[in-house]
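Continuing the batch. This is chain 6 of the set; chains 1 through 5 are on the previous pages. Same settings as before, nothing changed between runs. Recording input and output for traceability.
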Amino acid sequence: MEPMDVVGKSKEDASLPIATMTKIIKEMLPPDVRVARDAQDLLIDCCVEFINLISSESNEVCNREDKRTIAPEHVLKALQALGFGEYIEEVYAAYEQHRIETMQDSLKGGKWSNGAEIQRKKQ
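Output for chain 6:
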């Protein structure tokens, strides 16, 4: 029987896209540095464990606040509780950037769908 790390999923099911992770690893290193496959696998496993740790702590923060949905604030509190407070500003900046990009994408999509809907109403 396989160990269960994530509720209802085996260790092999809970992973990150290898190609994407390999690309990120390569982008973070100087061009003349190569990383052994075993080292890449270890880094990916560490990332999965980190995500599981943050998710679990975020869920606990969420439960303590009697909420049912994990919000970004819960993740930030989890980072603080786990000793990653020095990264909160950078994480929050990335979150804000993501929100802005998502909002821009939805506005672009909204213009097309609203314009098409208005056009149909006029006909």
